[in-house]
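Lay summary. Proteins are chains of building blocks that fold into shapes, and those shapes determine what they do. In this project we predict the shape from the chain. Here is one chain we studied, written as its sequence of building blocks.
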Amino acid sequence: MSEQTAEPMIEARGLSKYYGEFVAIEDISFSIPKGQVVAFLGPNGAGKSTTMKILSGFLAASKGAGRIAGFDVATERLDASRALGYLPENGPLYENMTPRELLEFFGEARGLKSKALADRVERVVFQTDLKEVLQKPISKLSRGFRQRVGLAQALLHDPQALIMDEPTSGLDPNQIREFRKNIKELGKSKTILISTHILQEVEAVADRVLFIHNGRLVFDGTPQDLHKDCTLEESFYRLTGSKQEVNV
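And here is the predicted shape, written in a compact code that computers can read:
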């Protein structure tokens, strides 16, 4: 695991988001260095997706700032987006396209041309093991293959950092296993923030855990620190203050 003193790739500085009197998140701060895989853990509704949407530039913060590779996501949006790959939960895909057509479309939108585009498509198809479905309509693909297409699109411009929101939600056990293998492999060369409420995800892929509850960061440490004197499930209960339903 990389030291936290290394150059930060994903940063949250006092992030807060308010909807009238409702507090979605408040004063969230953390810094993720190069080469670290971090699990963003917490119960449903804790504020994980809100934080990730702000960091990816899809949502404006009420207070604070987010930075990707040193670029402010609000004031240096294009530079930040070039350094980031984002896989939202249930991300939209053009179902009438094939995976190849979709990847070529997004590659062209990002300014990739001719050989550079072909090389990147070939690379992400290999990384996400999409070759067997490359010419099938996305509408005909399983949930697992759709997630792989979404991941391939997020990787297309070879970003330094990846943010993934509940990427294994709705997948069957075999699909989850394959997706986690992808994440572990990608973690060798990229900085990754992956949100989840599935406790097994933490031990399977993460170097570090950020635990959020009621819109506030309540834990920042290693998976081992999180459950050094109890199980992960018991730690979850302690940090949330109640026996919330979790996937284990």
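What the prediction tells us: Residues 243-248 have pLDDT under 50 and may be disordered.
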